[in-house]
Amino acid sequence: MRRHPPPGRAWAAVLVATLAQGVAPAGARAQETDPPPSDSRATTDTIRSGPVTPAEAEAIRDTLQRPPGQYPADWVDVVEFPLKLIGWPLDLVLVRFPAWLVGELTAPRPPSGIVKAYRSASDWGLKPMIRTTIGPRSAAALELQFDRYYPFYAHAAVSRRLSQRYRTGFILRRGATWLTSEVKWQRDAQTPFYGIGPDTKAEDRTFYRRDWWDVVARTGLAVGPSLVFAAGAAYEHNDVGDPVGSSNSLFDGLPPGSLFGADESTDYVRFELAGTLDLTKFQGFQQHGVALGLAGRSFFGLDDTDSDFRLFTAFVQTYLPINRQQQLAFRMITDVARDDGGQGVPFYHLSTLGGSRSSLGFPSSRFRDNDMLSLMSEYRFEVWRELHGRMRAETFLFFHYGAVGESLGEIEGRDWHPSYGLGLRLSRPTSLMGLAYLGFSSEGATAGIRGSWPF
Amino acid sequence: MALLTRTRGPLPRPLPGALAAFAALSGLAACAKQAPVPLRPEPVAWADTLPIPEPEYREPLEAPLLIHDAVSGQVAKGVSVRRLAGRSHEALNVTRMDDVVSSAWFEHRNDARRLTPEETYRGPTTDAGPDTTGPILLTQAKLQGISPGFHIEDVRGVRYVVKFDPKGFQYLSSAAGVISNRLLYAAGYHVPEDYIFRFRRDQITGVKEGATYQDAEFVEHPLEEGLVDEILSRVDTLPDGRFLAVASRYVAGPPLGPFHFSGTRPDDPNDWYAHEHRRDLRGLYVVSAWVNHVDMRFANTMDAFVDPGYVRHYLIDFAATLGSGTIRPHYPREGEEYNFDLWPTTARVFTLGFYRQGWEDQPHTVIDPSIGWMQVESFDPAGWKANWPNQAFVNMTARDAYWGAKLVGSFTDEQIRAAVDAGQLPGAFAADTLAAMLRYRRDRIVEHWYGEVSPVERPEVIPAPGAGPGFGLAFEDFGIRDGAWNAEGTSYRWRLRHEALGRRWEGTVGATEGSAQELAIRPTGAGAGERGARASMPAPDGADGTLATLEVEITRDGAGGRAATVYLQWDGPAERYRVVGLEH
């Protein structure tokens, strides 16, 4: 039986057909003679029904005179061929592969392979996760979360840049209060350092590694649905050294003693206090209202660490819907470091500007000094909503305006660094699933993906 | 060559650069285009019901297909050279009279012989549905997905799929499902037997041995009767305490999985025509638009292996039709935008969110929970969209749409009301309103798609009215028949071309009352004199069997759609024409 090639193979046939001057099925050709046209109504009984075997049917099928089942290639296919040649790899990477992935993850069948292993492990209490960041400039990380013996937990994460984070502890909740205690060891493998002050240059970038661990105990109290207080105490130890995976080390040529924290390990007792007032609420994917928070940490040097200092963070966020699809969002965040004696604030605890927390158009920790202030504004607009309202995509345009300085009062106009750009947010009705952004500044472009963002 | 180029436009100028050589060669290939209508082979009725070895069940994952059609398909459509050059492919399985033959996909029903209201009411059903006089056993249950349900077997051993309405919207999806089932059946498509099913809890008497259900992870477990109560706890009861559902009878023959709207089924040798080039699937767009079947997709189709051993292609599950979105009334967006609609999304990005579609400001008031919400005044027959695009719908041409519109236009008000009555809605208001909606949408569809073409049907050569040369053409104006327009203000512009006899006649005549029309095809203008005299003479030898074309354009107040072309063959000995083809 003659079968026509499936559409997908039409392209391979184009050249052959062209060179052979149109290899079209006979039925599609202009006929040289005029056979007597049949009355289509008379053809209804030409097929035998009844006891016809599949083999006989095959023979009958081969004798049928009927239109072709598929169009042969023509000049339009020739013209489209280069377009399709270009489009095919894009289609494969951008559409077919993600579509296949979605299909495998949502297949209405019992899980198998990696999905089954993932679900089995999760059910047992060991959950692998992808994190977009676990520390400054860590890049994406794989984290294993073990919580089989809840309230106890143990997490281990390693990033693409070999940053690491290991922590274990417990969380106890009772009514409106909670208590947590945790031991954590973290390596920030490749933290950037451009110098201190508002006028540092991008080409002066170096990297350092910071290994630190802490033992912390925290407690919290939720006063109603909107107001939360937390307090804690911790012991913290820090070591810094050459970065992992980069030869551009901060310590190359650094004069000894020129940068507090670079030459020595530090040990601190740390006390924390924080309060958050979240008056925002979700209405059909959109967040409305205001949220503000204030947090303070006091560090007291121990043993050979001659340094006491305080760190403060304050933020205000507000969301102004324009309509169901469009919204403005504003955030102001400030970090303040105050030296209470001794050698002051170690450089790795200074306030920084840059990255998703304070300025998307600049890389993480681009600017560093005692104080940082960032004004972040976004215009968000819906571009797609899933039919049943389970998900939506928004494009956002952002303009961030940030500065660092020895103190907020000393920040001058020339110290401000604007950045701007756009991105795409994917969210569920009451939570962000992830976002991707492309940011620009006077120093070039940055791009990133985040799995979560508080703003 | 005039006839050979009738159905295609002129060839393009050669392309510059490197493609010129290919274009030159492929220009030759392009000459091997479709033969004129009367010379083309025709599809053979029931050819796809020849026995074949039973194919295997197959159910490819739907998500990749939907995503690919939604993204790549829309990009391809947007940059389609074929579409931009006006060289879209017409359907392949078309007869010389611009129709389809009955097949494993479609049967001529209401368009061939108008069903009675009683037949429309009954639809495909052969009895009264699940037999509740005896025990009813559970055979399967469905807990996951957006609408729970179960499968039952009645005392006769007949099996049904049972699905329920969402809480707070009794009759919404069950009535919509049955009503659309009747309409699609009458239109000609293969559908299962769907029934409104009312039952008491105690009539479900047990679980069939070996019955299973799938949990949220799609792992199968033995079915226990207690799950019935879990499912029924999510469902409203009728005032008499019974439960309301739609029961869909298993089709005869083992299911083989869904069919896709493009390509063919590789293990079915009868599946000859690529689905994206099937008239009956392309025209289904119009019928789907009529009943607002936004969930027309791969997963709501089914191939079954029926006696005497071939694959029949069914449409199933009509819960998301009319005003029903299965678990809630339809949103204004449904029927207006795809679930992921690339171009409106792109427009929103580039206009920073200020691009708005009409549906976004549409009030969404559900006037009756049993019928949900459906566009009426804002219904756009050509702009309607299912939730997911498919290649057959994308490929639809005006001719395909007209064919589908004829199916819709064949329904009378009484038939529509009969189909609505099959849904057994709880009140006259709901039934009256829904019937009115369907009538309105039918009229808009007929008005729009008939206006894109010239709906000349059943042409027949008759003796020329009155004395003089020429002949007559009798035909039915479906636009008048189906109420798209009136005879008043309607004219028929005709043009006859018969090169072998040197005939180039043309004329215009106004429509007469009624849909049956007759045109006097006589020599006119420059041809009235010399050629008119020749027309009365016996045709020269060699003209016997030659073809002529008679274009008839229906105009209303000077404007109209594309002309219909009636193909005529000259019968020399009888000195008359006969109709051998029709193209809209």
Please describe what this structure looks like.
The complex is a heterodimer of chains A (455) and B (584). By secondary structure, chain A is mainly beta. Helix content of chain A is 14%, strand content 46%. Chain A has helices at 10-19, 54-63, 75-106, 113-124, and strands at residues 126-131, 141-146, 152-159, 164-174, 177-193, 206-223, 227-241, 266-278, 281-283, 286-301, 307-321, 326-342, 351-353, 367-369, 371-385, 392-405, 417-428, 431-441, 444-450. In chain A, the strands form 2 sheets. Chain A has a 17-stranded antiparallel beta sheet that branches. A two-stranded antiparallel ribbon of chain A has the order 13-14. In chain A, a hairpin with a 6-residue loop joins strand 15 (371-385) and strand 16 (392-405). The longest helix of chain A is centred in the N-terminal third of the chain and has 32 residues, at 75-106. The radius of gyration of chain A is 32 Å and the shape is elongated. Chain B is an alpha+beta fold. Chain B has 15 helices and 19 strands. In chain B, the strands form 4 sheets. Chain B has a 7-stranded mixed beta sheet, with helices on both faces. In chain B, strands 13, 14, 16, 17, 18 and 19 form a 6-stranded antiparallel beta sheet that branches. In chain B, strands 8-9-10 form a 3-stranded antiparallel beta sheet, with no helix packed on it. The radius of gyration of chain B is 27 Å and the shape is elongated. Residues 1-22, 28-32 and 526-538 of chain B have low confidence and may be disordered. At the A-B interface, helix 1, helix 2, helix 3, strand 15 and strand 16 of A face helix 1, helix 2 and helix 9 of B.
What's this, in brief?
The complex is a heterodimer of chains A (455) and B (584). Chain A is mainly beta.
Key phrases:
heterodimer; A: 455 residues; mainly beta; 17-stranded antiparallel sheet; two-stranded antiparallel ribbon; 14% helix; B: alpha+beta; 21% strand; elongated
